[in-house]
Structures are given as structure tokens and as C-alpha cells.
Amino acid sequence: MKIKILFFLLLPFISFSQTKMKSYGGEFKFNPNNLPCITEASKAEIKIQLQANIAQLEKIGKLNSKQFNFVRPSFIWPVRKAASSDFNNVFAISNYVDHNSNYPNQLQDYNCGNRTYDTDNGYNHPGIDIYSWPFSWYQFQNDLSEVIAAAPGTIIYKNDGEFDMSCNFNSNEWNAIYVRHSDNSIAWYGHLKNGSLNAKNIGDTVNEGEYLGVIGSSGNSTGPHLHFEVYDSTSNLIDPYNGNCNSGTSWWRNQPDYYSPNINAALTHDEPPSFKDCPQIESTNIANKFLPNTNVYLAGYFKDQLSETTANFKLQYPDGRIDSWSKNFTNTYTGSYWYWGTTDLNNLGTYLFEITYQGQNVSTSFEIVTTLTASSDTLENFTIISNPFKEELKITSKNINPKDYRLDIYNQLGQRVFKQENFINRLDLQFLSKGVYFLKIKNKNKRVLQSFKIIKE
Ligand SMILES: [Zn+2]
Dihedral (C-alpha) 131, 132, 133, 135: value to the nearest 10 degrees? Predict the structure, then answer.
């Protein structure tokens, strides 16, 4: 009885933070079954191909192995977020190079930790796995995480056209670009998205930071990630990191910390985020407008959350009032997400949701409104006016130069089924079978500007 009275007394003063202390979410584990990124057989074939290409490029004067720089490259980070990404950061690291040649489960990364893997049949992970996080398939679908050249060099081999939505071990080849640097060392960039590779040819040079492709899941892969593998000038596999278990100078210009905690995104959703079975595109359920007293989910997405640290959360109401709460992390995870749900918000206006973690601040705003305008396919420049469509897809555009844009249509497996170099208003799509597709309007650098779900009837 006493408890009931107390509860009643407190009720008017209870804030969001007190009523909604229960958090949901947890670890996102990439490649939980430790699938090898590449088979030894594929690797051997690639090495033969690289040697053959180097010899050929020397013959035609595009490479000169005798004229080399003694200074090793100084790498920048090989992944960046696309200009069209709204996230704060788009990746996390699942595995480093395994320095312990014994197996299975005999692991040692450069920092003497075991953030790497091997397999029963003698595979010791030879590269760094950088996976798209959060919503890796959504990022894949919308080209939101890009691979760039860690150092300038010459493209000595590239392979594109391979299926890019792998979830399991298979015999597929990966889409990849191989860049030789001026000291004759070579970097491998693997698992890229089909059709996303830099259009330059073998023998052409790339600059530091130049776009190479989009993170995909081609070859042996369980989801979108970059496998970055490096060989020195004498063809020995190296680990670019320096640490207690890998002496020598770091190949990174600014070597990132072993754990680099980061808030990858602060997002609001109208339904809980859901991570579906590979390779289904996740339902992000991201929303920024809500009706009063409907579901609002406030979520934080983290890279390298560390045990015994605390993330702080703050919700600022339209009237300036602030609710704050925190989450103590009891585990270290390479990728994690935590969210809180409420139906209590009914003050109309703009709210600010802010996360503070390890000195970083990331925020997002959302609104409580009286009416939700029906989501339309109208954004800044383009509108689909026949959707669903039968034979012809009609698109209107505002004041654009058709030569600045290209159109690509993908099926639900992420395979490109149509491309159009310059923008046109009517697409003849009679050849497509009935179903759901994704139309992407891109600029000439293949950046996705707008993405539409289209349905052929
Ligand atoms: Zn890998």
C-alpha cells in the first residue's frame, strides 16, 4: 500500500530518463563464425596474376621495378564515409592480422591481443577487416561506405563483376583492386561491391585518398567489409600496425589506437532497429518526425565500446527542459547499439537527442508534429511519377544538366540490371521482370544522390 502511494506521488515528476531506464540492444558481432576472407588457392592465383601483370606493365613502360623509392608508403585510413551518409562514422574493425602461425585458436595480433582469427585448416587471418557499421547492408545498398587508396600507386590488377552479397563460404572470387606503391610494396583491397570499382585501368595511377570502390561482400565473406592486406617490396606479408607483438615502424601515418571508441551514429526510429539475416537489407526504421504519444526510439551506435566506461545521453525538449541518463558498458565490443523507447513525448516542436562518449559528442534532432506528411519520392531534384510502373518509368527533374547525372537500377540482390549514362526522363524497362528494384540517381563520380524503391507491375 505504501509503495503505491509513493509511486503516485512521484508520477508527475518522473522524467523520460527515470521511466525508460531499460535499454535494449547489445553487441553486433561481425563474422561470428570466423569465415576466412580468401582461400589459399585464390590467393596463390592472385599472386601469379599480379606477377604477370607487373611483368606486362614493365614491358609497356608503365612500371619500372628497378627505379623504386626506398621509403615505404605512409598510409591514410582506407575507408571513408560517402558524402551522402548521415552517419557520424561508417565502419568498425573486427579483425587484425594473426601473427601466430599455429592454429586453430592460436591467436596473436600486433598488440599481443587476440583480435584476429584462424581456422582449423591453417588459415591465419592475413589482413585487416573493416566492416560497415551500423546497417551494413543498408550502407551497401546506398553506397555509403567507400574504400579509398591508403597510399598513391599504380593499379596492377583489378577484378570486378563478381557477385557481391555473399553470406557464407563459397568459391566465388572477390571484386578487388591491387595497388603497387613507389617502393614496390602492394596493397590489396578486397570484397568490393560489384560495379563500384574505380573506372581506371590496370597500369593507371591513383592518388592517396582516391576512390577505389564501395564496401561489399564479394568472395568469401559474411557481410559488407573491406579486407585490407599488404605486402612489402620483397613480397612478404606485413601488418601495417606497430605494437608489442609486431616490431618495426608503423606503416600508418597516424596509427589508430588498438581500440578507438567512437559514436558511429545517434539516430531516432519509429520502430526498433532490426538486423536481418544476411543478405537482407536491414529495416533502419530511421524517422525524424513523429506524432504525439507514438513510439520514439532513441539509439546510439558505437564502435569499440570499452568495458567500464560510460556513455551519456541527453534529450532536450522543445521548451529547453533536459532529460539525461547514462549507460555503463560492462563489455568491450567492436560494434554495439543501445536504444530506449518511449511513447511519452507529446510537446510539439523540435527535440535534440545527444550522445557523449569518450570525449565525443554526436546529436540528431527530431520533431513531434500533429500530422505526418505522407512520405513521397520527392527530394531535392528528382521525382518518380509512375511508381509502380508497367513498361516505362517516368522521372521528372528540376533544372538539371542531364550530363551531370547517371541512372542505375539494381535488383534486390544488389545486382545492377540497368544503367543509363546521362539522365533521361523516360526509361524503357520492358525487359525487366515484375518485382521490386532500386533506382539510384548518381552524379558522375558515382555518388548516390537519391535512391528510390521502384516496383514493376
Ligand atoms: Zn579479412
Answer: -130
Per-residue pLDDT tens over the stretch 256-301: 999 999 999 999 999 998 888 888 888 889 999 999 999 999 999 9
Ligand 1 centroid–CA 338 distance in Å is 27
128: CA distance to ligand 1 center in Å? Answer: 6
**How many whole angstroms from 42 Cα to the centroid of ligand 1?**
13
Among 187, 184, 352, 168, which Cα is nearest to 278's? 168
Nearest partner of 132 among 278, 6, 24, judged by Cα: 278
| Ligand 1 center to 227 CA (angstroms) | 4
- Give distance in angstroms: CA of 35 to centre of ligand 1: 9
What predicted TM-score, i.e. pTM, was given to this entire model? 0.81
Other Cβ atoms less than 10 A from the Cβ of 176: the count is 26
CA 142–ligand 1 middle distance (angstroms): 22
Residues in CB range of 61: below 8 A, 6 or more apart? none
CA of 157 to the centre of ligand 1 (A): 19
Query: Judging by beta carbons within 10 Å of its beta carbon (0-12, 13-18, 19+), is residue 118 exposed, middle or buried?
Result: buried
**How far apart are the CA of 22 and the centre of ligand 1, in A?**
36
- Model confidence pLDDT, tens digit, residues 335-355: 999 999 999 999 999 999 999
The reported pLDDT for the residue numbered 396 is 81
Domains of the chain: residue spans and CATH: 40-238 (2.70.70.10), 260-368 (2.60.40.1930), 382-456 (2.60.40.10)
Pairwise CA distance, residues 169 & 198, whole Å? 26
Q: How far is the CA of 221 from the centre of ligand 1 (A)?
A: 8
Query: How many angstroms separate the alpha carbon of residue 113 from the centre of ligand 1?
Result: 17
The three cell numbers locating residue 232: 612489402
Give 318: exposed, middle or buried? Use CB within 10 Å, 0-12, 13-18, 19+: middle
Cα atoms found within 13 Å of the Cα of residue 116, Cβ hemisphere only: 28
Strand partners, 410: 416, 438
| CB atoms inside a 10 Å sphere around CB 245 | 15
Q: How far, in Å, is the centroid of ligand 1 from the Cα of 362?
A: 30
